[in-house]
Design goal:
Layout lengths: L1 E2 L9 E4 L12 E8 L2 E6 L3 E5 H4 L9 E4 L3 E10 L9 E4 L2 E3 L3 H9 L8 E11 L2 H7 L3 E4 L3 H5 L6 H8 L18
Parallel strand pairs: 6-10
Antiparallel strand pairs: 1-11, 2-3, 2-11, 3-4, 4-10, 5-6, 7-9, 7-10, 8-9
């Protein structure tokens, strides 16, 4: 279901229109982790990198999970979302069953005890951020469509197909988006 700009909230998904260019936002799905009148914080959830978590977090216990391209802001920081709630202290609820951030030391302990898997935690390099009213302006020029999802879909293992899956769900008004070439200059 697509939502109006009045319905932006934590947990909303932003689907990039098909001609939005750049490595970060081309056909991206952004999960809004924090939205308010002061601005928005989100992470791109459908851009897994070939880099593994252990290649970025060198002082972490071995964890052979992919790391995702989270966005162009603070590209030297790692962020994470998870389904573990209070198990990771200082976590912030996004929607029912989905949280961001928390105590990195507890995450280390959970890695050591093999309590984590790729369906209950995801790591991201950088994030996407908007200042007050910036995201609303981008919505007015149709850079994004707002959609909803659920924890299972967000944390599912088919992130590379997520944009296409969610666009199909938007209905007939958006069905042509799927067939637009990634680079119209090559068409």
């Amino acid at each position: 279901m697509n939502l109006s700009t009045n319905e932006l909230r934590n947990g909303s998904l932003l689907l990039a229109e098909p001609f939005l260019q750049g490595n970060y936002f081309s056909r991206s799905v952004v999960l809004l982790a924090d939205y308010s009148q002061e601005g928005a914080f989100g992470i791109i959830i459908n851009k897994p990198m070939e880099t593994k978590v252990n290649e970025v977090l060198l002082d972490y216990p071995e964890l052979d999970f992919p790391i995702y391209l989270g966005g162009p802001v603070q590209k030297d920081n790692v962020f994470f979302i998870h389904t573990l709630g209070d198990i990771i202290p200082e976590s912030v609820k996004i929607i029912d069953g989905l949280f961001w951030g928390g105590d990195f030391e507890m995450v280390k302990e959970l890695i050591k005890t093999k309590s984590l898997n790729s369906t209950n935690i995801r790591f991201f390099i950088g994030y996407a951020g908007w200042t007050s009213m910036q995201l609303e302006e981008e919505l007015k020029i149709n850079s994004w469509v707002i959609s909803e999802s659920n924890t299972e879909e967000i944390m599912g293992n088919d992130s590379a197909k997520l944009w296409k899956t969610l666009v199909k769900r938007l209905g007939d008004d958006y069905k042509d988006w799927i067939n637009y070439p990634i680079n119209p200059m090559l068409n």
